[in-house]
Amino acid sequence: MKSTGDATAINIAETKSASATIVGTTKAVQHPQAGLKRGLAIFDFILRLSAIGAALAATATMGTTDQTLPFFTQFFQFQASYDDLPAFTFFVIANAIASGYLFLSLPFSIVCIVRPNAVGARLLLVICDTVMVALTIAAAAAAAAIVYLAHNGNSNANWVAICQQFDDFCQSVSGAVVASFIAAVLFMLMIVLSAFSLRKH
Fold it and tell me: The Casparian strip membrane protein domain covers which part of the protein (predicted)?
């Protein structure tokens, strides 16, 4: 009876050690993947903060751009403002929408940091980021075309360059366009990071 009991005890001990080894091996495989996803989520959060700064800078710079020349005639006063051109108005609205979205997306980014394997929040961010990058690039491209004409004009269409007179106005709108393109690039990086996070290993 003792020998049978000893054999049983040995089998139980061996089973427990084997299960412990399996659990330890499983944990060792899961931790690096979760750590990588958490690192990508943290980097995504930093990119979102940077994109907020770029989009807000583009919105504020374009939205406050206004220059009036010091000379005028009896009937005309020479003034340039962003709302004189629909492309610049669209630019301000689009970047304001992007800024608001980025601010609202921060809690979802934090969820991805706390729960690196959460698929729903990450998938939602990918879809919304894709829409926002399209909106931001469209606004920046439209504004860039107007800025190019303001700097160089178009002799075929009899459009004269105005930046020699409205130099401060042109510098401000050019800086706003650059900031918007920076925000669009940051959006692209966030989409790539989300794609890596959603990839199954």
Answer: 38-186
Q: Is the Cα dihedral 20, 25, 29, 31 positive or negative?
A: positive
* Total-model pTM: 0.75
pLDDT value, residue 117: 80
Q: Which amino acid is it at 185?
A: V
The secondary structure element, H or E, covering residue 164 is: none
Closest to 180 in 3D by CA, of 58, 79, 75: 58
Neighbours of 102 (CB within 10 A): 27
Euclidean distance between CA atoms 91 and 88, whole angstroms: 5
What per-residue confidence (pLDDT) applies to 3?
A: 47
Per-residue confidence (pLDDT) for residue 152, from 0 to 100:
83
What does the pLDDT read at residue 156? 74
Which DSSP helix (H) or strand (E) runs through 116?
none
Buried b (16+ CB within 10 A) or exposed e, 26-51: eeeeeeeeeeebbebbeebbebbebb
- CA distances (Å), origin 127, targets 105, 113, 182, 195: 12, 18, 20, 11
Q: What angle do CA 159, 165, 171 make, to 5 degrees?
A: 95
How far is 27 from 31, CA to CA, in rounded Å?
Answer: 6
